[in-house]
Design brief:
339 residues; alpha/beta; Rossmann fold; 2 domains; 6-stranded mixed β-sheet; 10 helices; 36% helix
Amino acid sequence: MTARTRDFGLSRRHMLLASGAALASAGFVGRVRAAEPIKVAGIYTVPVEQQWVSRIHKAAEAARAAGTVAYTYTENVTNTDYPRVMREYAESGVQLIVGEIFGVETEAREVAAEYPNVAFLLGSSFMPDAAIGNLSVFDNYIQDASYLSGIIAGSMTKSGMVGMIGGFPIPEVNRLMNAFMAGVRETRADAKFQISFIGSWFDPPKAKETAFAMIEGGADVLYAERFGVSDAAMEKGVLAIGNVIDTQADYPETVVASALWHFEPTFDAAVAAVAGGMFKADNYGVYSTMAKGGCSLAPLGTFEGKVSEATMAMVAEREAAIKAGSFAVTVDDSEPKSS
């Protein structure tokens, strides 16, 4: 796919002519006139329909509709082209750039350092660098919701074999899988796991074929970290657990539960920091936690009443404890292994 750019409420010509650029002082990046919408650009390596990126896009769209930002974005940007697109937006008058740099960490940080007057909020597996005061990082720390979805999955498997399919074994994926597995073991202590990574963020056919193989291997519940897995589950009559977005309506007899990511708390915090002239290098990962409203367990929909009362009582108890701070889901970034 080729890169596509969409512009909402802010033409490229207007950006090039805009005279109000953000200011940088003592490591802070801010804006000139607080009454104007923040100029935000999104740079995405996949289509905005992809689960993970769709959450960023949705939050930006909501802020645009509320009038707090003027938002434009480019999707399907290759890693080799990512630095160029960053520079183009930085030089166009954009005040905040959001995106994901998992495959282009070094180059992206070098570009951010070249534009200290622009705020960068980038998905990353690494922490911010104090030497680059205008680059903050985030990740979807939704292990709380993933753990709760695992509790449900463990109660629904009959074979005790759970299949798990991810994109790449990076911390962002690993921590969700490990949390899910911990949840499964709460209700099915003897559960076994088939785990595979397809080496792509967006390859539904490959994810589907991998899922078929796991079903043939005895898995009757699948963890759908990638698109394509739930399609296989639906065709073969097994169950699936969703990740990041709620696809229950699309797979009403297949997707039992989903761990949802809400990017709005992360995005809104960054926009507020830019608006207040207080944006600096920081880790925004905390805004993805359940306590901050950054994740939740999706409604069961058609599976309401099909999950045991005891299981849902455990889910409710653990959710309350997580929000109260009396129970913490372990953050384990190590690569999960089949068992």
